[in-house]
Amino acid sequence: MCRHICTVGRQTRNETDTPRGKALNLWTVLRGMRDYSMEDAEVIFRCVGCGACKQWCVSGYDVPAEVEAARVDMINVGLIPEVVKDIRNDILERGNPFGKSPVAMHDASINGLSMGKGKDELDVLVFPGCEVSYNAPEVLEKVRRILESIGISYAVLDYKCCGGPLKSLGFYEDARKVAGRLAVEISDSGAKLVLTLCPGCLYSIKNEYVEIGVDLFDDIEVRLFDEYVLENIKSGRIVPRECEETTVVVHDPCSTGRKLGMYQLPRDLLSGIKSIEQVELLLNKENSPCCGGNVLSRRISPKIASAASSEILNEALELNVKMVVTTCPSCRVSFNTCGKGIRAVDPVELIAL
Amino acid sequence: MIPKTSEKQQKKIRDELSKIVGEENVSIRKNDLISYSVDNFWVPRHWINSGRWPYQADCIVYPSSAEEVSKILVFANENNVPVVTWGGGAGSQGGALAIKGGIILDMKRINRVIDISETSLTVTAQTGIIHQDLEWALNRKGLSMMHYPASISCSTLGGFLAHRGSGVLSTKYGKIEEMILSMEVVLPTGEIIHTLSNPRHAAGPDLNQVFMGSEGTFGVMTEATLVIHKVPEVRRFRSFLFRDLRDGLEAGARIMRGRAIPSVIRLYDEAETKTQVKSVLGIDREGSYLVLGYEGYDEIVKVEESIGYRICEELGGEDLGTEAGQRWWDHRYKFFFPPYCLDLPRLFGTMDTVATFDRIADVYYGMKNAIEENFPGTTFIGHFSHWYPWGAMLYDRFIVDNPPDDPDEALALHNKIWDTGVRAALSNGGIINEHHGIGLKLARFMREQYGPAFKVLEILKKGLDPNGIMNPGKLGFGDFQWK
After folding, report:
1. Which among B31, B128, B130 has the least Cβ separation from residue A16?
2. Same domain, A70 and A157
3. Rounded (10°) CA dihedral A134, A346, A233, A317
């Protein structure tokens, strides 16, 4: 039970793009009936890795894992679509998957603390990730204000890739090197608590580093910034002020949701803010459809990403909500750029201090 | 086949199709031709599993409207190109296979919900919509089509209409042919027609029923208006265990004749109780397992339940309670998916049939004895899942655990078992299929089933599709020999 929910298959309406179509074609190669082709590569690299198929599959097939394995095979035989090569090169050479020129995105001297100095005084290291760094810097500005309002000494890590996108594409060796560099930077910072602004980065660090042979430092805790905020709201350290009355709907991203299981996080955050009313989409939590717009898919298949995001926003519009709330910056960017005229925000952006 | 007079001619055909639907909506990519060469029929699945290529189309075309379908069919007639309509490709009868090559028409771009009327409780939707999407659109308004087949997530509305499909609640809400009000059809010669706005008229025969069940041989259905329902106030299930199947069959018949109609009667024979019910539901008992379901207003459901439960108890049914019944509902689709369903490398088939109450037990035992006696080592299992005031449907399956490795030998055995089972059903008063359709698998039985009445279907076919381009070889029209 996967063809109805496949993010790409729903938009292309092509059987080949569904998990069944992919599996059938991979079978013909495994069975020795034919070789891989560039047409296969285009289909396999088009998969957004949302895991909706795995969630709905009553037979327990892990389609995303099979797709990733197929990508590794295809890379080994040199079948890599040009756009995928470009993304890989951009991450390795420019440090981001968007093809944008690398810039020093952050002031590493915050509150008098520079990277590598005053280690004992650093409460928190903020790791923004590529999406916030390049496409949603306003989220980082809100993060700074929240941390400063509660007197936290922090530094913001100048952007490095977490390696997750490279691993997802099947470039394991590249992922290992890039992730390894990040691990060293985090270790050198002296921080014992790292707050990431991207659940995709969090998932990579906590679940995938061990797969690609990157050691993570046992005494350093890595958490999602939104989790940290919720904890501080519950302890009373952060007291959100009442804001303008508004009705919002929560979209459960694939990373925070199906991968990390943090379904209550955005809902609890919003419950802590007076005058916010939450409504639910018909398909929510583990059944949430994918926005289609992760950092890779927006570049590999921009039309599919835009259409998948639009489909979710169409339902939000029918519910007459003012905003869509999502804990993933990629969903946020995808929703805000698909032209449906409804704003998407991270829940922490609604916290009035 | 698309006339292979030259590469130039083939390219000309694809170019003409591209002018109708756009170049990006015509595919001859190898991986696409493969994706559309296997449905849920055992034969192509077995072939591709064994390393043999199934029949493939020459190209896949993705129209976005009835107008585009019309132009494609006009073009196909002019160039003598076979056309096979593809919804979700989840049929078990080979109905969507392009056995003569040509065009596969994937309908899934024609997939909008046009209108939901809460006044008339009707929905109008395009036939390429995946049924789960249609159901969700209705659920958002507290409504439902109450059509819940196991293929809900991979089949289209058009597929159900084309094969006269059924869902788990059909005992109360009917099969799809009872839900239809009107439809839009593109005839094989390109005309776009509409049947009358509802079928309860006295203005001649009901044209809906001409096209429903025609499996793409009489034209392409592109839009349909169907009955919908408010989601019931209560929905409850209970299970019983009968000493044997005959007691369960009698219970079901008495319940249906009693006019307090349940939403579900699902009766498993002893073999399925020991295997399927045990593996999916974890209920490990000997006998014949029955699930009864009722839904609607609570006050009415209570009365209906009391009638049904009393009948079960009178026939010695052991009350297994509501939890067991609810468990069946919660896991109702699991029976049909791996690892619980029958799957390769076994050879298997579903020989569903339907008969009146005075014949259905004979149909079951006749088929069971015929299969097991003629094919030692072959297992026959069954359950009764769709019930009518006059009879019941038998969903029976044969299973060969270790079929021949050679695909031709396996196919020969497959066809012999089908011949035996279907003829046993026919000779005991059953019909060759109840809700999966005919397709390729059962095409050879259609003349035998209908006798002289098949002439009516032949005349309709000839009149609607004079060049025989629509889904050739299916539903008993045209010749076909396995390669």
Report:
1. B31
2. no
3. 170
pLDDT at A112: 34
Nearest-Cα distance to chain B for A86, in Å, is: 24
Residue A15 C-alpha, separation from nearest chain B C-alpha, in angstroms: 6
User: B110-230 architecture in CATH?
Assistant: 2-Layer Sandwich (3.30)
Q: How many residues does the structure list for chain A? A: 353
Interface of B with A in 98-137 (CB under 8 A): 106, 108-109, 111, 128, 130, 132-133, 136
Per-domain boundaries in chain B: 7-108, 110-230, 234-334, 347-435
CB contact under 8 A, A24 and B62: no
- Tens of pLDDT along chain B (483 residues)? 444 557 787 788 899 999 999 999 999 999 999 999 999 999 999 999 999 999 999 999 999 999 999 999 999 999 999 999 999 999 999 999 999 999 999 999 999 999 999 999 999 999 999 999 999 999 999 999 999 999 999 999 999 999 999 999 999 999 999 999 999 999 999 999 999 999 999 999 999 999 999 999 999 999 999 999 999 999 999 999 999 999 999 999 999 999 899 999 999 999 999 999 999 999 999 999 999 999 999 999 999 999 999 999 999 999 999 999 999 999 998 888 888 888 889 999 999 999 999 999 999 999 999 999 999 999 999 999 999 999 999 999 999 999 998 999 999 999 999 999 999 999 999 999 999 999 999 999 999 999 999 999 999 999 999 999 999 999 999 888 887
**Buried/exposed code over A102-122 (b: 16+ C-beta within 10 A; e: otherwise):** eeebbebebbebebeeeeeeb
Q: Which CATH class is domain B234-334?
A: alpha beta
**Angle, alpha carbons A46-A139-A298 (nearest 5°):** 15
Average the pLDDT over A304-320 and give the result. 96
Distance CA B92, CA A270 (A): 48
Q: Which ranges constitute the DSSP H helices of chain A?
A: 7-12, 19-30, 38-46, 52-56, 63-76, 82-94, 129-135, 137-149, 164-169, 172-189, 199-203, 209-212, 225-234, 264-271, 297-300, 302-318, 329-336
- Interfacial residues of A (vs B; Cβ cutoff 8 Å): 1-5, 13-16, 20-21, 24-25, 27-28, 31-34, 37, 39-40, 43, 56, 58-60, 282-283, 315, 318
When divided into structural domains, chain A yields a total of 3
CATH number, domain containing residue A247: 3.40.50
Neighbours of A343 (CB within 10 A): 15
Q: Establish if B29 touches chain A: CB-CB under 8 angstroms.
A: yes
Task: In whole angstroms, give the CA distance from residue B342 to residue B350.
Answer: 10
Q: Give yes or no on whether B110-230 and B347-435 have one common fold.
A: no
All residues at 6 or more sequence positions from A76 whose CB lies less than 8 Å from its CB, including other chains: none
**Cα distance between residue B79 and residue B267, in whole Å:** 51
* Cα(A2)–Cα(A58) distance, integer angstroms: 9
ipTM of the complex, rounded to two decimals: 0.93
Q: Are strands B391-400 and B347-350 parallel, antiparallel or unpaired?
A: antiparallel
| Distance separating alpha carbons of residues A116 and A122, to the nearest angstrom | 10
CA neighbor of B470 nearest in space, from B220, B224, B222, B221: B220
Q: Which residues of A touch B139 (CB under 8 A)?
A: 282
Q: CATH classification of B7-108, choosing from 3.90.850.10, 1.20.1510.10, 3.30.43.10, 2.40.50.100? A: 3.30.43.10
pTM of the model: 0.94
- Residue B283 is encoded by which pair of tokens? 């209920």
Pairing of strands A193-196, A221-224: parallel
Cis status of the peptide bond prior to B345, with omega within 30 of 0: yes
Residue-wise pLDDT tens digits, A87-109: 999 999 998 999 988 765 554 43
Minimum CA–CA partner of A13 in chain B: B108
